[in-house]
Amino acid sequence: MNDVFGDAAPYWDRLESAAQSLLRGYGYHEIRLPLLERTELFKRSIGVETDVVQKEMYTFDSRGNTSLTLRPEATASCVRACITHGLLHNQRQRLWYRGPMFRYERPQKGRYRQFHQIGAEAFGFVGPDVDAELIFLSARLWRVLGLENLSLQINSLGTPESRLVYRERLVDYLNAQKKLLDEDSRKRLQVNPMRILDSKNPDMQEVISGAPRITDYLDEESANHFGTLKTLLTDADVAYTVNPKLVRGLDYYTRTVFEWETDQLGAQGAVCSGGRYDGLVEQLGGKPTPAIGWALGIERLVELMQMADSAIDTGAPDVYFVMVGDAAMQVGLSLSEQLRDRLPDLRLWNHCGGGSFKSQLRAADRSGARLALILGDSEVERSVVAIKPLRSDDAQASCSWGELGERVAAFLT
Ligand code: ATP
Ligand code: MG
């Protein structure tokens, strides 16, 4: 679990505000969800046999002896909220959320126990138009952030029925190869055989590449859905690879699944993953409602942004106010409030805590401000402020208190 501060913080800000603005632009509304839910919710949605539920959840008994869990992801919470508030009665919803998720994982670079996601969910759309829209939205976000080299993998898991048929074929195949399976995969063979396809063990890759492909078992409607999605992506120039081994870790996915990956972060290459979960709303007690969403991992994307050295707003002020002496401090603080009234977006740092001209001017320079305002006893006596450009050779000027707002505004535009 990390503290985020210093140089990293502006990157978080940049990512969050870019995502927020795009999501709004596409018609998604923000939903703020609690960090705690009843444990049942995650067992019923993510699936009892998944790694997340088996090994990764922070679960505890609350005072009333209810079992609660720190959310490992927010799709289930989002569905729960929609059902609680009747948000899906005869209506569609496009929603997004952001915030911390908690998984008891083995900590390593890019894999944390508290990590942060931004996610988008669309309810009530059968697709594949909205499937494509959600992918376009994520692709646009990478462009806005200046991230190149992210690659998109897609797959279709079909319907629960077609998946069952595939699952049997897969189990037959894997059983015949049992000698070649590692221990983990042998365990998975019983409970969650499709996750074997996800194995990162190099010794397993040969068995896996010979396995039957789920895309060969799709029902007609799922196959058409997938075909149209591919056309829509191609039409929009969004490059993709079909990866029949992409099965995703959570049980609730149907039809479309996808993942954005990078090869710049070592083993933790997935930066955004998602998929369709047409059965989940009903499974959690709502009316049958098709749905699809994705979630991106903020830590991994911030890491990429830092590597790409994306232009970032470091938060430097426009103006640094130097005030030397008690009289200057008294006048200066009131002038700076007047400046803020006049220019509400102004970034203005007061030098609090006193000190010499020299030390205050050094602090002004370090702040990155474009302009220093300087007030000492002699300026106070004459009712003026000295204005000193810090990033150019322009000469220092002086102006009356009444003109200050106008002069600063003129200088900054
Ligand atoms: P992975 O294969 O890396 O374990 P996942 O399939 O478990 O990822 P999802 O549950 O789909 O991931 O979450 C969506 C995104 O959240 C991932 O693509 C990743 O960027 C990020 N993410 C997931 N788990 C972590 C973690 N423990 N630490 C940091 N980021 C994470
Ligand atoms: Mg995981």
Q: Could you explain the architecture of this structure?
A:
This protein is an alpha+beta fold. The protein has 2 domains: 6-158 and 218-308, 2-Layer Sandwich (BirA Bifunctional Protein, domain 2); 319-412, Rossmann fold, CATH 3.40.50. It is 39% helix and 21% strand. It contains 15 helices and 16 strands. It has helices spanning 9-25, 39-46, 51-56, 75-84, 129-144, 160-176, 183-191, 205-209, 220-235, 280-283, 298-308, 326-342, 357-367, 377-382, 404-412, and strands at 29-30, 36-38, 58-61, 67-70, 93-102, 114-123, 151-156, 241-242, 254-261, 270-276, 291-297, 319-323, 348-350, 371-375, 384-389, 397-400. It has an 8-stranded mixed β-sheet with strand order 1-5-6-11-10-9-7-8. Strand 3 and strand 4 (67-70) form a beta hairpin. Helix 1 runs antiparallel to helix 5, helix 1 (9-25) packs across helix 11 (298-308) and helix 5 (129-144) runs parallel beside helix 9. The longest helix has 17 residues, at 9-25. The protein is elongated. The protein starts with 8 loop residues before the first helix and ends with a helix. The mean pLDDT is 94. Adenosine-5'-triphosphate binds at residues 73, 103, 105, 110-112, 115, 117, 249, 268, 270-273, 295, 297, 299-300.
